[in-house]
Each structure stands twice: as structure tokens, then as C-alpha cells.
Write a sequence for this structure.
DNA sequence: ATGGTTGTAACAAAAACAGTTACAACCATA
DNA sequence: TATGGTTGTAACTGTTTTTGTTACAACCAT
């Protein structure tokens, strides 16, 4: 089980737009060649990021550009923008037996702990901004 | 994306064994009817939990029983026992373009943050023991 | 020896992801 | 206003992962 690569592709895409956007026109073809995937994958990613209000994409003339300040965009925002997880992170088996004392109470016993774990993950993602990544990237360049 | 139900099935299975094990013989059929899945699913779960040293399973005569103290078994132990995640939780797209400044450095920029998020999740799972769940369950019964 | 059980292989079905082709809609600009 | 490059999206394929099922040999207390 892994969290879909849509997430890291989206981060990669945003870094390209925010860091290289002044130098180059950021078309889906350009970004696709940096990420090394099919341009359609990038267009889908751009659609999601646009719907989340993080970037803008010019139809026709082409090119993606920043909308939000990179300080305001966290990894969590990107993670939700590309729908990595639909609601609960942990999967339950359906219809446990209500006749059984365990089956009847398994949700009551487990749910809060699983929610805590998911929240811990998400809080960590909220603590990192696009701006943080850009600073780190600039040191490496 | 969701974490496989093998995990919650395994927790359910262990609660059954630890809480009802004195009253009933815990066969795969018995547990399967509480969880409401095919008995083979439970046998596979029991195999994993046995391999992790948490329980013992009697072939032939049948029945599963506790080995480890419930205080010593955390949700994380169960999570790893059933292989919810193989190594990294977050998936990367393969072979980003090394000619591109972003592609070349995307791992250096992202990896540690993703590892932190994964660790936060896992630490939360480590903080809950089977014993905690049993106490909560006893209140509800 | 037997009856109920485990362990596991083999396979089918379903769901999620990833990748691809195709093409209409769009728009700066020549 | 025609054009060339681009986006947006539908439709489809292939792959992988997960889940469910049947089948049966090996096991063992009685």
C-alpha cells in the first residue's frame, strides 16, 4: 500500500511552476519532461491544482502560473488537491457481525485511534510549505 | 487510497483471541463469522500474526491463542505484521529527469518531509496497545 | 481412523492507478 | 481570420493490489 504518486507528481509540478516559471513557459509538455511522465498526467494534475486555487492555467495560449503565495501552500493542501485519500485513511471490512461483542464494538474501540494517526500524518504535511521546499531547492542549485 | 483492511481485520482478530479466547475455541471459522469475511482471510491473518510472534495457532486440533502480553503489542506491531505498507508510505514517480534542476533534486527536497509524516503516523500507532483496546472494550460490554 | 482444523496454492473478481490516444475547444499572434 | 501550439477531457488499455473463493494436503486430539 502506498499513497499515489499523484501527490509527489503534484509537488514536483508546483516546484517547477514556482521556481522555473519566470524563465520558461510552463506547459504540460515541459513539466512532463521534467517529471518524466505522459503530458496528460500533468494536465490532470494541473486541473486539480487549479481547482484548488493554487495555480492558474491558460487554456489555448498555454502555461501554468502561481496564484497563491508559496508561504500559504502546504504539502497538505497539495495532498488534498489531488485526492490522495478519500475521507478515512484506514479501511474497514464491511458489516462486522453485530451479534458478536467484538464485531459490535470494533468501530467504537478503534476509530478514534485511527483518526489520531491520520491527523498526525496530516499535521506533519501541514507543517511544510512550498516556500520551505523552494528554499531547500535553492541551496541545492 | 486507503490502508488495506487487513490491518483492521487483524486488530479485530486479536481482540477476539485475547478477549474471547478463554470462553471459546478461536478457530478461523469462529473469527470469520465475527469479522464477517471468508475464513481463509482469517487464516492468512493468523499466519501473519503468528509469524510476528504475537499469537500461536494450533494446526490440526485448531484454535489461536495469545503469546505476547497485550501490553506489549501495539497497533504498529499489528500494522507491520500484516504488511500494510512496504517500506515508504509515499509513492514516487520513477526516473525524474536528471537534466532538470527540479527532477534532479526532488528526492533531496521531499524525502525527509515525507519520512517525517510517515513517522508521525507510525508513532501514533505505537502509542496504542492491545491492552488499551481491551480496556475500552470491557467498558462497552 | 476419523472429523474438524490449519496452511497454502491457485485462481477469479473487483478496485485503484497509471499510461495512452484522440480530439474538440481555446487563444495569442501573425 | 487563419493557424499553430496548447489545454481539457473522454475513452480505453494495461498493470498492480486487494479481496474473495474453491480446493485439498497436512495435521492432530480423540
Amino acid at each position: 500500500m502506498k499513497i499515489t504518486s499523484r501527490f509527489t507528481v503534484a509537488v514536483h509540478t508546483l516546484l517547477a511552476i514556482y521556481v522555473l516559471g519566470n524563465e520558461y513557459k510552463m506547459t504540460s509538455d515541459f513539466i512532463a519532461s521534467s517529471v518524466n511522465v505522459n503530458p496528460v498526467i500533468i494536465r490532470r494534475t494541473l486541473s486539480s491544482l487549479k481547482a484548488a486555487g493554487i495555480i492558474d492555467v491558460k487554456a489555448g495560449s498555454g502555461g501554468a502560473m502561481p496564484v497563491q503565495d508559496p508561504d500559504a501552500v502546504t504539502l497538505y493542501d497539495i495532498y488534498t488537491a489531488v485526492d490522495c485519500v478519500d475521507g478515512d485513511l484506514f479501511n474497514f471490512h464491511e458489516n462486522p457481525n453485530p451479534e458478536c461483542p467484538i464485531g459490535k464494538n470494533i468501530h467504537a474501540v478503534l476509530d478514534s485511534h485511527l483518526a489520531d494517526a491520520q491527523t498526525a500524518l496530516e499535521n506533519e504535511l501541514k507543517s511544510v510549505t512550498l516556500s520551505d521546499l523552494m528554499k531547500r531547492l535553492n541551496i541545492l542549485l
User: Anything to note?
Assistant: Strands of chain B lie at 55-57, 64-66. Residues 1, 27-29, 40, 43-44, 46-47, 57-63, 91, 93 of chain B lie near DNA strand C (CB under 10 Å from a C1'). The domain at 6-86+129-140 of chain B is CATH 1.10.10.10 (Arc Repressor Mutant, subunit A).
